[in-house]
Amino acid sequence: MLNQINKTLVVGASGQVGRLLAQAWQLAGQAPTLQRRGGTLSSDLPQMEWHPLSGAALEAGRFRAMIVLAGAVRGALGLNAQLAEACFAAAVQAGIGQVLLASSSAVYGVNGGQACREDTPTHPVNDYGRSKLEAEAVADRWRAQGLAITALRIGNVAGADALLGGIRPGQPTKIDGFADGKGPVRSYIGPITLADVLARLLGQDLPPVLNIGAPNPVAMADLAQVAGAEWHYHAAPTTAYQRITLDCGLLAQHYRFAENPSDAAVIVAEWQATRGPQ
């Protein structure tokens, strides 16, 4: 079903993750349509202007699927549920049969350092995680009405994260150091792998919720080292958590990973290939 990506509308393509994915799809020779709110995106992929919250309809029959990346990470977080509602309504009206909704691993909270599975109870520790759960609740309602929606609980996307995305030449990068002399461990995924995952999930019969990350977690210090950052540990605050990871076993039933997608070198290389000119 890989060809379905060319009949897919990507909502929120102007965000950090969207820009990385657009580069990755272009490198792969795939051509989803990127939604923009105004102006022109710096991509050679097909584009269309559409404002979901305006209630504007989509052309019926034009798209088979929709990938919703749009949302807020701070500020007016209520937009996450509002955008989900608007996109689902537009999808039904336009005859779109499948929607992939970008949620977040933040919905789980910490889980005592254990890897989070899709059936792990959700206990978000911040407003962002709570807003993503609200968007998932909107998805539940529309799913009950027959729309095939999968909420993708995505881990850290290389380049759209605080670590790699925050590296600046000449500016030291601080990484939390814990009592064992090591730093944080997180679930990551490179943008090229993520773009391929999204393309290959289209057309599949998917569960309502799916964790998205490379098979194994990675040490953030390894990523910083491979990326050539000037980094050092500093004492982790009491509010920091060393290990927040995803169990992506269910994803592995729907997607066959290439070799070594969890290696720091592979993750960093994917970011560098898709981040565009510096």
Question: How would you describe this protein?
Answer:
It contains seven helices and 14 strands. Helix 1 packs across helix 4 (191-201) and helix 2 (79-94) runs parallel beside helix 3. It has one domain (2-274): 3-Layer(aba) Sandwich (Rossmann fold). The protein starts with 7 loop residues before the first strand and ends with a helix. The mean pLDDT is 95. Strand 4, helix 2 (79-94) and strand 5 (98-102) form a beta-alpha-beta unit. It has helices spanning 16-27, 79-94, 127-144, 191-201, 220-226, 249-252, 264-274, and strands spanning 8-11, 33-36, 47-49, 65-68, 98-102, 148-154, 156-157, 173-177, 185-186, 188-189, 209-212, 218-219, 231-235, 243-244. It is globular. The longest helix has 18 residues, at 127-144. By secondary structure, the chain is of the alpha/beta class. The strands form four sheets. The chain has a seven-stranded parallel beta sheet with strand order 3-2-1-4-5-6-11, covered by helices on one side. A three-stranded mixed beta sheet has the order 12-9-14.
